[in-house]
Write a structure and sequence with these properties.
Number of strands: 14
CATH topology of the largest domain: Jelly Rolls
Radius of gyration: 34 Å
Number of helices: 9
Shape: elongated
Helix content: 40-55%
Structural class: alpha+beta
CATH class of the largest domain: Mainly Beta
Strand content: 15-25%
CATH architecture of the largest domain: Sandwich
Order of helices and strands: EHEEEEEEHEEHHHEHHEEHEHE
Number of domains: 2
Low-confidence stretches: 1-14
Largest sheet: 5 strands, antiparallel
Length: 329
């Protein structure tokens, strides 16, 4: 990779054409070409082959690279990471590490054969001293770089938050999933225990769901699960915690409710879900619900086990009904 002088930008060509060349470079925009006549020949010029690494966090940088033709890409973490920026003609790279006097924070690679101007560390500061316009342009470049980094960070945070939501949310119904349920239910059980407040848990299962799927298909079955989930969201209080336990089963934690109150809510909920069946279906959508109230020794797993046993008792008793777990005192 040889370096040659940029004489053509300072001598031997028409002044207007020289000025037009400089105007296409962000660092030199608005600068009087004549004021840089003695400094421009001290810049270098290199031909970078596609795939050539120009900047790396693993080595010191002493230059600013200005793209005259071709294209560079920027990668965080590793060369195999997706690019976070493209640098075309007129853009530069390396100025941040020179200003900070630190190793580069990213990899910069030629994505195609590229022709680059090279400004050394010493020459960069001489240009800053020579021209207020150059100094301003450098600040603009740095500002745009910081803004771009902030946008990338904001975008990355958005992706992380979405990934976190996906990790805790059931994709079909939008309710909390088992992972979310384990965390949130345990937190609420602990809170009510310390506050000596009542708490009940409902396990809800769609009756004869496998037969429904076999008869009407899985798409119709998914619609039933979504409709049940929406009913739970609309019918229950904002303080109640609702999760899809798995398959056609849902779990609902009811803080600050006594067993008789929870049973009344479960009965009204059962009746509400029975109204979901459209006239076109000969099969009525019903649910069986089991309820358990927390005793002093109950944790989430024990509550779920007791409510689940009550729910299966409701199914064995004929489905479409509410059953209460025996006291665990």
């Amino acid at each position: 990779m040889g370096i040659v002088n940029l004489d053509s930008l300072a001598y031997g060509i028409d002044t207007d054409f020289r000025r037009s060349l400089l105007q296409g470079i962000a660092l030199f925009r608005g600068i009087d070409a004549e004021s840089m006549n003695d400094l421009l020949p001290q810049c270098g010029r290199i031909d970078a082959k596609a795939g050539q690494v120009l900047l790396s966090p693993e080595r010191e940088n002493h230059c600013v690279y200005v793209v005259l033709s071709g294209r560079l890409t920027v990668h965080l973490g590793s060369l195999d990471a997706p690019k976070i920026a493209d640098l075309g003609p007129g853009n530069c790279a390396g100025e941040m590490s020179l200003i900070e006097d630190k190793d580069p924070s990213a990899f910069v690679v030629a994505s195609e054969d590229s022709h680059l101007m090279v400004i050394s560390h010493t020459l960069l500061w001489r240009m800053v001293d020579r021209s207020h316009t150059f100094c301003k342009n450098l600040l603009v470049v740095l500002s745009e770089r910081v803004r771009s980094d902030n946008e990338y960070i904001a975008s990355s945070l958005g992706v992380l938050r979405q990934a976190e939501r996906n990790a805790h949310t059931d994709a079909l119904t939008g309710l909390g999933n088992r992972h979310w349920m384990r965390t949130m239910f345990e937190r609420e059980v602990t809170r009510t225990l310390h506050a000596n407040r009542s708490l009940c848990l409902m396990m809800i299962d769609v009756d004869s769901f496998k037969a429904f799927n076999d008869r009407y298909g899985h798409i119709a079955g998914d619609r039933v699960l979504v409709a049940v989930a929406e009913t739970l969201r609309e019918f229950l209080r904002p303080t109640d915690l609702v999760a899809r336990f798995g398959g056609d089963e849902f779990a609902v934690l009811l803080p600050d409710l006594k067993l008789n109150q929870a049973r009344q809510i479960a009965e009204r909920l059962r009746q509400q879900i029975a109204k979901l069946s459209p006239p076109s279906l000969s099969t009525i959508i019903t649910v069986s619900i089991g309820i358990a109230d927390r005793s002093e020794n109950d944790d989430v797993a024990t509550l779920v086990q007791r409510a689940d046993a009550a729910m299966y008792g409701a199914k064995e008793a004929g489905r479409n009904r509410v059953a209460v777990a025996p006291s665990n005192e």
